[in-house]
Amino acid sequence: MTETLIRVEHLTKHFPIYKGLIFQKQVGAVQAVDDVSFFIRKGETLGLVGESGCGKSTTGRTLLRLHEPTAGKIFYKEQDITALSADEMRGLRRNLQIIFQDPYASLDPRMTIGGIISEPLEIHNIGTPKERQERVQELLQLVGLSPYFINRYPHEFSGGQRQRIGIARALALQPEFIVCDEPISALDVSIQAQVVNLLEELQEQFGLTYLFIAHDLSMVRHVSDRVAVMYLGKVVELASRDELYTNPLHPYSQALLSAVPIPDPVREASRKRIILQGDVPSPINPPKGCRFHPRCPLAEEVCRQEAPEWREVRPDHWVACHMVN
After folding, report:
1. What pLDDT is recorded for position 325?
2. Distance (Å, rounded) from C-alpha 15 to C-alpha 305?
């Protein structure tokens, strides 16, 4: 896994805030994603973790240009897709797909399952109506559903089945890269493992590349090759799964991982929990310097004045912290 499939350089997404009903004036911006850089190798799963509201989903959607980036560049196979027109981007979307977080909101209730899964094929003019129907039945079998469900509607399915339908829709165009935007967070625990196992089987079968967004750290450790940790719109640490979970360097990563339960009562009782003080600052007015400094137990004056550099401190281990040598 050496070929880089996706590369992001200084990606930024700010949502403007307007005031006034008639003569609207921009009075600020929600800095959802700010100066984020990383890459994803072909065939790997990059896990993206962080607490709610830190910008994980916005990163995934901006990466596919479902949100237009405010600044920065996105490369797919070394092609800068931020420079493409809407028509050029439409042709490229066959290779770049997304599985949405909420299976109850992401499926059109007025369409049959066959219509939902075949819609990407119709948009891209792939196959005859008969060939599309056969492809839909094949995809339903692939995700563990009966091909006879083709004329049913979304309300007739459970949450886990709906998410399988969403996965089938994402696979319809045979993509190379899929953003998995918290695909299991809305599901029962008993169903989550089934969906994750399905995603792993499909990755092995079709050579897929995933950006797996989640806040369940145990699940991310299970599915990911590398893990990126995000805080208030910034990626603060990125390393291989085992390296990050055994040797986190950023104070926020250490606090986050200290909250993961260990299924060993002796180790669980002896380990130290890191309790962060205060609340996450507002992305409308983030702190100057390092964004984590108001809650960081190691913060010094340099952290309050200067934003830390994103640097590789060890082979394939990146961190943004003044206190890490």
Report:
1. 82
2. 25
Write down the pLDDT at residue 187: 82
b or e along 217-228 (b: 16 or more beta carbons within 10 Å of the residue's beta carbon)? bebbbebbbbbb
Residue 36 in tokens: 């984020």
Written as six digits, the tokens of 112 are 């049959």
Answer positive or negative: Cα dihedral of 17, 306, 72, 94.
negative
Burial class (CB in 10 A: 0-12, 13-18, 19+), 238: buried
Query: 30-65, pLDDT tens digit by residue?
Result: 999 999 999 999 999 999 999 888 999 999 999 999
Count Cβ atoms below 10 Å from residue 316 Cβ, excluding itself: 10
**DSSP label of 182:** S
CB 215 within 8 A of CB 51: yes
Reported as a single tens digit per residue, the pLDDT across 280-307 is 899 999 999 999 999 998 889 999 999 9
Give the pLDDT confidence of 211-228 residue by residue, as tens digits: 999 988 888 988 999 999
The pair phi, psi for residue 191, each rounded to 5°, is -90, -25
What is d(CA 150, CA 160) in angstroms, rounded to the nearest whole number?
Answer: 17
Q: Is 168 exposed, middle or buried (0-12, 13-18, 19+ CB in 10 A)?
A: buried
Query: Is the whole-model pTM more than 0.85?
Result: yes
Residues 200 and 177: beta-carbon distance below 8 Å: no
Residue type, 103: P
Return left, alpha or beta for 35; rule: phi > 0 is left, psi -120 to 50 is alpha, else beta: left
Q: Which residue has the tokens 């007025």?
A: 110
Residue 317 CB contacts under 8 Å (≥ 6 apart), including other chains: 237, 238, 239, 240, 243, 244, 249
Closest CA to 253 of 228, 216, 290: 228
Sheet containing 234-240: order of strands: 96-99, 177-181, 209-213, 45-49, 226-231, 234-240, 317-319, 311-314
Give every residue of the chain whose pLDDT is below 70, as ranges.
Answer: 1, 268
